[in-house]
Amino acid sequence: MNYYARVKKVNTEITEQVSTKLTSKPSKVFIAKDPERERERHPIFPIRSQRPVQTTPFSPQAMQNQEGLQVQVDGEVESGPAPSEPLSSLAAEYQSGSAILLEKIKVLGEQYAAIRRTRGDGNCFFRSFMFSYLEHILESQDVSEVDRIKANVEQCRKTLQSLGYADFTFEDFFSLFLEQLDSVLQGNEESISHDELILRSRDQSVSDYVVMFFRFVTSGEIRKRSEFFEPFILGLTNATVEQFCKSSVEPMGEESDHVHITALSDALGVPIRVVYLDRSSCDSGGVSVNHHDFVPAGNDLPNASDSPEKVSPFITLLYRPGHYDILYPK
Amino acid sequence: MQASRARLFKEYKEVQREKVADPDIQLVCDDSNIFKWTALIKGPSETPFEGGIFQLAFAVPEQYPLQPPQVRFLTKIFHPNVHFKTGEICLDILKNAWSPAWTLQSVCRAIIALMAHPEPDSPLNCDSGNLLRAGDIKGYHSMARMYTRLAAMPKKG
User: Where's the OTU domain (chain A) (predicted)?
Assistant: First the structure.
């Protein structure tokens, strides 16, 4: 019997077995026992668990670990952002913590009015970016920016196609993001308000799909410009560019680093400011808060030293080791 | 739920188109339930699984493709990364390294690759893993071969 005939034969046997719900003992193929019961006994496949809801009230003492900067993971089940809070709530977190941090928060307060926290599940950079960007469009009603990013999104689609990704693996994520873009522009049937944007960003099915859209875009950009990103990736891990994308960019819950932010900013053409709140300080006395502007590569003028001054990012994120939140300038 | 159904339907159509392209994999969707699939994969050549046909069962969660499908061997197999009794497969992409860029078809390909390249350092079948770790390639091959013949090849006559 040749291979195909054999496959066909085994296949018909299987169809019969499946149709009888694997209750009958097959004669030619070993079959594990009742699959459902087996799975109960051996919880083989980890179900991605929702983070447990934290019931204990927040205590500043809990923050007092060695680093003095353990980010409190918020207790919300929603995946989206919390309501914005005045910057003083940030200071309250570190009340009995490091003096440098308190000093830095005071400095931050001169420029920034509020903070909006995002869920700390490894997707916080992408979730912060998503909310911040959509909120900016909602408030500015900047149609030309929407047209511009849509052109970039199309470019990203082509990038993924040329890298060999099958359309059906990413198109659902792309169309959900484009849907969100249209709905924050007012004046059409799908338009949504700011409150609805918050609700929608907390809807895990929407939020996760948009995060996944960003992950595809980021991965595509890194692989497209692998020569550029390779040295940075080698600095982080021992992986090749492809391995890095497969293991640290595409899977949900993998945290973002400079490489991710650079790639996403470049791919979508959106500048991002990241403000760093850590315990580093300089000896010269006065405390200052560092920030870094990620300016899309396309925008770089030949005299690179001048160009960052000209672009003012409308997305500002606060980075504390291991977590990103959204910052609102005064 | 709706999203996963739509995605699976696209995969179904893709599988129909690709059928000829990959003769090592036959992926079949359950007639009445698009969340249940079975696959027949050909044991890779130059391995003890050569000539065998192995059956995999896929249970696709509602959150697919954000969450990975649950896959196990229905055909008995002697392999360090497959549980001898349950058929559970230890493969990173079926756990924390999963991403929606994978498809049911590409998962099959990854499993075929795992059959050819066992990772004895993270064994689900310790007997099998220990043979390889002890360097007893001959022992591993003959055990794996025996089970391939017993379970994955049609009986003669």
Answer: 113-330
Q: Between helices A124-140 and A258-268, what is the axis angle to 10°?
A: 30
In a domain, B21, yes or no: yes
For the stretch A261-290, pLDDT in tens is 999 999 999 999 999 998 877 666 677 888
Tell me the three state secondary structure of residue B44.
coil
**What DSSP designation does A112 have?**
E
Give tens-digit pLDDT for A35-91. 444 333 333 222 233 333 333 333 333 333 333 333 333 434 445 677 788 888 888
Give the residue numbers spanning the domain of B87.
Answer: 1-152
User: Cβ separation of A30 and B154 shorter than 8 Å?
Assistant: no
Q: Would the CB atoms of B99 and A250 count as touching at under 8 Å?
A: yes
- Closest-CA residue of B relative to A168 is B10
> Domain holding B79: CATH number?
3.10.110.10
Domain assignment of residue B157, yes or no: no
pLDDT band at B136 (very low <50, low <70, confident <90, very high): very high
The complex's ipTM?
Answer: 0.90
What is the CATH code for A3-17+81-329?
1.20.1300.20
Q: Poorest-confidence range of A216-220, B2-6, B74-78?
A: B2-6
CA closest to B7 among chain A residues: A168
- Nearest-CA distance B74 → chain A (Å): 5
Interchain CB distance below 8 Å, A251 and B96: yes
For residue B146, being part of any structural domain is answered with: yes
Number of domains, chain B: 1
pLDDT the model gives residue A189: 81
C-alpha to C-alpha distances, A292 to A118, A124, A259, B106, nearest whole angstrom? 20, 18, 13, 39
Decide: B46 and B129 in contact? Cβ < 8 Å. no
pTM for the structure as a whole: 0.80
Rounded CA separation A324/A119 (Å): 9
Nearest to B40 among A11, A209, A212 (CB): A11
